[in-house]
């Protein structure tokens, strides 16, 4: 995925869909309204799925760190590793 997004007029959604979809495979396409106002970002399905997967991983990491910090501060809240995995799996679904 490129780091600099492609910029295209939003009107290209009507007249150049195939071109925009092809560009979206390379990286985000920022669709601009009249007056150079960003209106939307077009990304490929692969990029969308990758972003969602990464977001879920980060959410699970944050939750596991929260639970570990809680257990470190209060020994009575410590649980077995298997139980932690079960709880995280439950929150991930």
Tell me what you see in this structure:
By secondary structure, the protein is α+β, with helices and mostly antiparallel strands. The chain has 2 domains: 6-43; 46-92. The chain has 4 helices and 3 strands. The chain has helices at residues 12-15, 17-26, 45-73, 81-92; strands at 6-9, 29-33, 37-42. Strands 1-2-3 form a 3-stranded mixed β-sheet, covered by helices on one side. α3 packs antiparallel against α4 (81-92). The protein starts with 5 loop residues before the first strand and ends with a helix.
Q: Could you tell me the strand content as a percent range?
A: 15-25%
> Would you identify the regions where 5 or more consecutive residues have pLDDT less than 50?
none
Rg is 21 Å
Major sheet: size, sense and barrel closure? 3 strands, mixed
- First-to-last CA distance: 28 Å
The proportion of residues forming helix, as a percent range, comes to: 55-70%
Shape: elongated
Number of domains: 2
Total helices: the number is 4
Class per helix and strand makeup: alpha+beta
What's the helix-strand series? EHHEEHH
- The mean pLDDT is 88
Instruction: Count every beta strand, where a strand is a DSSP E run of 2 or more residues.
Output: 3
**Strand order within the widest sheet?**
1-2-3
């Amino acid at each position: 995925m490129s780091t600099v997004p492609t910029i295209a007029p939003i009107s290209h959604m009507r007249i150049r869909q195939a071109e925009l979809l092809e560009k979206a495979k390379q990286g985000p396409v920022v669709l601009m309204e009249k007056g150079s106002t960003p209106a939307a970002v077009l990304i490929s399905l692969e990029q969308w799925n990758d972003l969602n997967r990464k977001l879920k991983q980060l959410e699970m990491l944050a939750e596991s760190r929260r639970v570990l910090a809680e257990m470190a501060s209060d020994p009575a809240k410590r649980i077995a590793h298997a139980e932690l995995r079960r709880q995280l799996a439950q929150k991930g679904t």
